[in-house]
């Protein structure tokens, strides 16, 4: 597990949207915004069964996510790591609860087992700026 500073952890917890990048089987990158939750050094987000990012992750587990803010003050953090697909089980249930609790969107449109999967990002590298 990578080590985060207190400022990095505070920033990750204060934001709601990150941009995830995956790579297709042909080597093409794709970047998509996601609502995420951060828990015990891991990052979770939900996706539908038919998404390109899920198709990509079934072939290549490498993933990156950037969480950033550009305004009067520019700051952010990016992670590279591996992704695991969670479709059921205790960790899926815990991550589903985190996402449903952390985000107004999911409070109105809850993630449900059998309809969505949750991706767990295990970061192996990080870089931050302005924090």
Description:
With 131 residues, this protein is an alpha+beta fold. It has a single domain (6-129), classed as Pnp Oxidase, Chain A. The chain contains four helices and six strands, in the order H-E-E-E-H-E-E-H-H-E. The protein has a six-stranded antiparallel β-barrel. A hairpin with a 5-residue loop joins strand 4 (62-69) and strand 5. The two termini are 20 Å apart. The mean pLDDT is 94.
Care to give the gist of this entry?
The protein has helices at residues 6-14, 52-59, 89-102, 104-108, and strands spanning 17-23, 29-39, 42-48, 62-69, 75-86, 116-129.
How do the helices and strands follow one another from N- to C-terminus?
HEEEHEEHHE
| CATH domain topology | Pnp Oxidase, Chain A
Number of E-type strands: 6
Average of the residue pLDDT scores: 94
β-strand amount: over 45%
Q: How widely separated are the two ends?
A: 20 Å
Strand order of the largest sheet: 1-2-3-6-5-4
Structure annotation, total helices: 4
Main β-sheet: number of strands, strand sense, barrel status?
Answer: 6 strands, antiparallel, barrel
Alpha carbon gyration radius: 14 Å
List descriptors.
131 residues, alpha+beta, Pnp Oxidase, Chain A, six-stranded antiparallel barrel, 4 helices, 6 strands
Topology:
Elements: H1 6-14, E1 17-23, E2 29-39, E3 42-48, H2 52-59, E4 62-69, E5 75-86, H3 89-102, H4 104-108, E6 116-129
Antiparallel strand pairs: 1-2, 1-4, 2-3, 3-6, 4-5, 5-6
